[in-house]
Amino acid sequence: MKYLIPFFLLCISFNGFAQAKEEYTFGKISQKDYELTIYERDSTANAVYLYEKGKTTFIQTTNSIVISTKYYAKIKIFNKEAFDVATIEIPIYNNNSTSEKVKDIKAVTHNGMQKMYLSKDNIFTDKINDNWSNVKFTMPNLKENSIIEYEYTLESPFKFNFTGWDFQTDIPKIKSEFYALIPGNYVYNRRLMGFQQLSKNESKIKKRCFSISGMTGEADCEELIYAMENIPAFIEEDFMTSKSNYLSALKFELSEFRGFDGINHQYTETWKSVDKEFKGDKNIGRQLRKVDYLEKRIPESFLTGVNNLDKAKEIYAFIKAHFTWNNKIRLFKDVKVKDAFNNKMGNSTEINIALINALNAAGYDAEIALLSRRSYGLPTKLYPVMTDFNYAIAKVTIDGESYLLDATRKTMPFGMLPFNLLNSYARVMNFKKGSYWVDIKPNKNNRVLMTMDLKIDENGDFNGSIKKSYSGYRAFDKRIEIIESSEDDYLEEIENDDKIIVNQYENLNLDGEENNLKEEFNITIESNLNKNLMIINPFILSKISKNPFQLKERTYPIDFGYPRTFIYSLRLQTPEGYSIKSLPKSTAFKLPNTGGNYIFSIQQKANDIIMMYKFVIGKSYFVPEEYPYLKEFYAQIIKTQNSLITLEKI
């Protein structure tokens, strides 16, 4: 909810405001806090925030209006593993004319009834670069079961630096509260991030709270109070995108400033205005108008004939072959398509705009799409925030089918994006009809097929062949692994990791990214099997040894990036003079909601053991509620893969 002040009050501002009720007295610790030795909601926690509060107000100084944020924290340190929590760093920003300031630092360490306060001599300022510094201090007399308290006030003259409040960190919090009093001259968009629920969400108008010396009248403010309780620590685990997508936080973006001179400054744009701006932008719109330049430089065969999928693939292959990516990612600066084409080297946007121009020169419907890499976070769909984007790709429509393309990687097949670009959705910039969102749908055929034919000799060693076939992202990843190392180094790593001896090796379709990559090995596996009773794990080269899901509870989604399938088949010829005493039991189980399945089958045929297992993750995205199923799914797979074959000498 936003409250706007009338036009005649735009030149008026801050006089005073009622203080928000404090829920703490600095230096006072309860007996309950002293006696706390473990956080019951998370017994693994090394520390816990007992209470945290921020209070942001706008105040008049001699020369300007500054945003003043008072911060307070009270933390129980359970053990030495959390001592680093007691080193506090406060980043401050400056430009050529002014700077943020930290003032009124107070800090104390409580050990029972003993208190030790922070000395001002132990507060330091470290310069990070020309624009950023850190105010830094470490709490004194730190011990296990200490309670630390500290507070400070950060004053910022930069109205864009009021960015919100972080409720969640890697330390659990019993309560975190944020209060703000925002004059009507400042209009901020706000959004709640993450998966934790607010325990308090209050907003009201505070009348006549804002004025400026020398000006008559008073204006209204919006008074905000937000709180969360029992906030779990955020623990990173496999299969996630940027943690900024999941951390519970309140984000503010300045939408409008109604100047004290009566002039309004609009900062949040509409997509219509963004489209218009980008159409004339030197790094985007003007570069997309180099169609004639590309038309004169691509093969003439691209300009004639039917515009089908095969010809689009040829244009895509031409651009990939022409350019070498300089490993630089640029979006809103340093984009010069002509220079990049002439130099046969360019940044990510130069290469992909060249691809768009080449496709349009040939008569295709190609557009630029903006997205955020997985490590950078998801763009908001609520309103345009252009700093949310950091990558540009191509989108082309052929016979009603849309394809998203990135030409920076020479081994990337047509219609696939690099893994770090599989981040939910992109914004397609159509300057004629208006921009729109498009979902990023990963390739579904991502498979590894391994076929093994092994024989156990009289010494208990395994000899035979392995054939592997890779498709989709599994093929792309394996091609990169092979190309970026010598064959000797590649095979040596396989021998070391899998404890095998590679006698012979060959790969097929290494350069044909549109086809499945294949590998063939002739191998020996030396073993120390007991010759009277051989106990063998049949999962010789494909065992999942560790469950990637270890958390008691995961509060954020599981994102595999793409569906995947692994199929393993084994023919194991047993040595003469041995009988097959026991085999594992065949089994099958699956995840709910078509999330995946696992099939394990094993049987005896004469003196051979025939085994097959199929492991499928059927979708790329799982909600937190599905985490227990995934965790148990992997646990059952590991249990199955610890099953053993027993051969007994006759």
From TrEMBL:
InterPro entries: Papain-like_cys_pep_sf. SUPFAM superfamilies: Cysteine proteinases. Keywords: Signal. The keyword Signal applies. Residues 1-18 form the signal peptide. The keyword Signal applies. This is DUF3857 domain-containing protein. It comes from Aureibaculum algae.
